[in-house]
Amino acid sequence: MRALITNDDGVSSEGIRTLTEAALAAGLDVTVAAPHEERSGASAMLSALEDDGRLLIDRTTVAGTEALAVHASPAMIVFVAVRGAFGEPPDIILSGVNHGPNTGQAVLHSGTVGAGLTAVSQGRAALAVSLIGSRPTRFDTARAATDQALAWFLENCENPYVLNINVPDIPPEQLRGLKPASLASFGAVQAEIGEIGEGFVTATFHEIGDEPEPGTDVALLREGWATATALRPPIVADAVNLTGLGGTEG
């Protein structure tokens, strides 16, 4: 099975090395193509540096295997990869390991999850993995959770969806296991608007201290669990009645 590995922290991050090692250990045919620099918060944005219509690519190595440092967002990398930009199109997409959480409604803004949602829109299943914390260090714990999640994912990737995994930044022996979770109703961080002046606005971000709903990703992570949530891209809001909207034919 062919797997494209990408992320939003950049091709030189420790997280993508961890994910690549897990994929190679699982026997996957791996292509590593990730942004040449950090693209956190890129969501599913399709952006790239172009020179005369060309997508710029540098060659490097990740976990001892050849890798591509692409001057583009992770979603763009996925978008062109499924069209054969980096060789044979991948069967699945692996994104991460992200340096920081992708929980609750904050998944909307994540470049890591955005790469996965772009994969789904192109008919591929995706696994997105994140290690929570502002400067996470326990990539050994992320690897253990990734191995478990990847083994399950490879048996259940015939239909397109994103399996979003979050791992607490704790020693492996303290990890309670991997558990299904719903998304918390809020994101991992909250923004506060401060001074508003001529030509500028100040904004600060901090972790939310509110008590999360039981069974959500944020709650379970605080209890020492790694969490798994299945995601799909936006769909039509069937519950909204649009009768009377719009003009008449003429």
Structure overview:
The protein has 250 residues and is an alpha/beta fold. 21% of the residues lie in helices and 30% in strands. The chain has a single domain (2-183, 213-231), classed as Survival protein SurE-like phosphatase/nucleotidase (Stationary-phase Survival Protein Sure Homolog, Chain: A), CATH 3.40.1210. It has helices spanning 14-25, 74-81, 111-121, 139-154, 217-222, and strands at residues 2-6, 29-35, 50-51, 54-55, 57-62, 65-70, 92-99, 125-131, 162-167, 178-180, 189-197, 200-207, 226-231. The chain is globular, with a radius of gyration of 19 Å. 45% of the residues are buried. The mean pLDDT is 88.
User: Strand share of the residues?
Assistant: 25-35%
Q: What is the H/E string?
A: EHEEEEEHEHEHEEEEHE
Mean pLDDT: 88
Extract low-pLDDT stretches.
none
CATH topology: Stationary-phase Survival Protein Sure Homolog, Chain: A
CATH class reads Alpha Beta
End-to-end separation: 54 Å
Helix content: 10-25%
Main β-sheet, in a few words?
Answer: 9 strands, mixed
Tally of individual helices: 5
Radius of gyration: 19 Å
The CATH homologous superfamily is called: Survival protein SurE-like phosphatase/nucleotidase
